[in-house]
Amino acid sequence: MTRAVSPSDAATLSYEHAGVDYDLIDPLKVAAQRAAAATGTHLAAHGFREVTASRGESAYVVDVGPFYLASIVECLGSKALVADEMHRLTGKSWYDSIAQDTIAMAINDLITVGATPLVVQAYWAAGGSDWFGDAERAQALVAGWKRACDTCRVAWGGGETPALAGIVADGRIDLAASCTGLISPKERLSVGDELGPGDAIVLLASSGIHANGLSLARKLVERLPQGYLTEVAPGFTYGEALLAPTVLYSPVTEALHHAGIRPHYCANITGHGWRKLLRHPAAHTYRIKHVPEVPPVLRFIQQHARQDDREAYSTFNMGAGFALFVKAAEAQKAVEVAQAQGVAALVAGHVEAGAKKLVIEPLGIEFGDDALKLR
Amino acid sequence: MTRAVSPSDAATLSYEHAGVDYDLIDPLKVAAQRAAAATGTHLAAHGFREVTASRGESAYVVDVGPFYLASIVECLGSKALVADEMHRLTGKSWYDSIAQDTIAMAINDLITVGATPLVVQAYWAAGGSDWFGDAERAQALVAGWKRACDTCRVAWGGGETPALAGIVADGRIDLAASCTGLISPKERLSVGDELGPGDAIVLLASSGIHANGLSLARKLVERLPQGYLTEVAPGFTYGEALLAPTVLYSPVTEALHHAGIRPHYCANITGHGWRKLLRHPAAHTYRIKHVPEVPPVLRFIQQHARQDDREAYSTFNMGAGFALFVKAAEAQKAVEVAQAQGVAALVAGHVEAGAKKLVIEPLGIEFGDDALKLR
Lengths: 375, 375
Known about the structure:
The structure is a homodimer of 375-residue chains.
Chain A: H1 22-37, E1 49-50, E2 60-63, E3 68-75, H2 79-90, H3 95-110, E4 116-126, H4 135-152, E5 155-160, E6 173-183, E7 200-205, H5 214-220, E8 231-233, E9 236-237, H6 238-242, H7 250-258, E10 265-268, E11 285-288, H8 296-304, H9 309-313, E12 320-326, H10 331-340, E13 345-352, E14 357-360, E15 365-368
Parallel strand pairs in A: 4-5, 11-14
Antiparallel strand pairs in A: 1-2, 2-3, 3-6, 4-6, 7-12, 7-13, 8-9, 10-12, 11-13, 14-15
Helix pairs in contact in A: 3-4
């Protein structure tokens, strides 16, 4: 995956070209993870203990006795830059959509461990007081944030709206959300200890790019004849398509609980695309027999970035926003529960004994154990 | 408080000159608070309920049955700009200090409602991958964060380290922390319903400016002959003095609990300085008989910004970082408990029946009901 930079129009545009250099970030991440791991024992002073298996998972879990406590902080990333540019081009505010994206980043991670999200806190750090002077944009942000909380039935506890001139770029905003939830009853905890051969892989549909891969999607604009206003389908621009808000999956995981279905494991398909299906630390083979329909915007990106399927599926969600690993006997019912919540789903494959790899049979792609390094 | 801008060297430098215009931010804040308040009822769907009195307090509280859950997100603000400038001037990294400040912003707010902080999540959003390439600075950030977690005996659950080129300014970092805690036993909840006449006001010492008022402190540098390297005391520069890390008060509130002292109310003295003593919504008179020693850096700022006491105490903590409102009979013991944790404290005054105001007798200052509008 290390290639010459400066891609021409004819070359593949991969994530490495898009300006995020994980080689620089990873040493800090590793140091932070080690230091963080050493603090888990502090909980004993308060009569509690961490669920150590949650380290390296998408949310951190503490055993507080009658239930587990789960918490997380997540940021939107660079999708706000697309909203800002589309506002410039169309005059419309897209902040209601990216508010939902921001909450989705936190909620969809929190639910992977089996938690019911209860409280969201807003972190909206602007490049100066002036940002808040655009009342239409500010109201759109509030309205979208509220609507996403309503969809997920979480309480919006409050938050922080600092004006950080000199730290956040002038005219921009850094959007993030923290989320706290409970895993109750405790049997709902899903950190993967029950995942095993025979389990089915159910994929929940995405609405588009969600909020991962935006650096590449923004880079691609340079290649498009009309930039963000290039049509991906008649009357539907690239910019609009990118800004479809991320699906909120907590209504599905809550409905699964009420239907008596307890996932053995969950993976939120975000950065690293389908390689996130390899998230669980154990050695299993994940065999995909059916792939979901690819949203037009992702097919469009794949074509214009000249990515082969391997590159595309290792970068984008390609139509699968969230993966549930459930008992085979419950897979079809899980699909029905998701669809009753308005989220398309399919039984895409299964887990089997074997070397750690992901095999996407319909596309002839394999990702091995070395494809995803998160721990 | 609205004066002509463009202060000359002879003029008072007030917070309004420092570039944060609350008139622009407040309409969004009000809209967000209203929308947020309407989401509290969602908790019933999960069998829980919000503690409505916590809306408008420093942390949001949910009744989850056996105990209360408290959560918050807070940011450092512009203190990182001081650290960056001091690094340029001295070659030393100050990120261990501002890591502690960031955690203090969250922890010191969370404990006001009676919570034991359990989990901190790190939010470190850099202006690009390059930020993380400075290994010394990155390691200082990790080390300071870890040490603050150790001091507060909280678990560092994880976090987010995005590279946000185009959103966060090049070479800068936006530092924030979210924190989750429990209020257990439930009697520890302190949202002020027991606050009343006769209660003592115990003030816990600050270490300096903490992380509030930095916009003004940075603006002041323009007036100083040697900028950040101007001495506030022999061998002790203004920049160093500003970067003294914020005191972490959770060891004190935990020790108070173990000593059987339950504050009726707490106020974290941050933005708006001593006006935060008026935080509680009820009408009481707060009478201060003794003021703590003013840290040299704050006395220095007051002098060079040509602020009178009224302006200084309405902007900075002036030596009081945290206020405990306790039964009069427990006040002296509360002081001893704090001092046993290494935090200087004094019984500064008391609450009495009367119009809502703060009277700082030794300085001849009063702040009325209109001095603080947070709700």
